[in-house]
Amino acid sequence: MEKMKSKKAKTVTRRAFIKGMGGGALGATVASQLIGRGTGPLQTDAGKVPLYAKKKITLIINNKSLTLEVEPRETLLSVLRKRLNLVGSKKVCDRGECGGCTVLLEGRPIYSCHYLAVRADGKNITTIEGLASGKKLHPVQQAYIDKDGYQCGFCTPGFIMASVALLNKNKAPSLDEIKAGLSGNLCRCGNYTKIYEAVQEASKTMRKA
Description:
Elements: H1 2-10, H2 14-22, H3 25-37, E1 42-44, E2 47-49, E3 55-61, E4 64-70, H4 76-83, E5 102-105, E6 108-111, E7 124-126, H5 139-146, H6 156-169, H7 175-181, H8 192-208
Parallel strand pairs: 3-7
Antiparallel strand pairs: 1-2, 3-4, 5-6, 5-7
């Protein structure tokens, strides 16, 4: 009986949870609006703060301007894959660790699985689908093929995007600089030697262009 009473005493009630959210009345207000209506203004000490269910944004993806409504919680990766059918960026770890979802945002590589779509409003985004010029592959894409810079190929799009970002910034990187530039991407097949050779080959091609 004593053990049962002890367990009951430790049980978190709904009231205790709401109090923990924001100190009583404010917590209850936040909870009711987030769980209930969700779209009306939230009354705070600073005034009324609007809560938006969706927001209209414009994404400039691969030089094309696209306007759509997204939820504040949607990641850029989710929008690319599920809403725009740009599935080259891979959802692998979904925790910003492996680089399989790498895209270029204003020229710099980012993990799109951890980047909210609303933050990309009005910004230039390049995905793996936007690298080739017609049927002509980007030098980095071609080098990955020529040097066998892939095995299963699942991580390849992310590696290619990170490689493009590196070579756009540094046309003649050393091996150590290549390793550092791609350090945010993981190849579970362990094909790093071929990947580095592909970047070196692409570097030569891009310097000649």
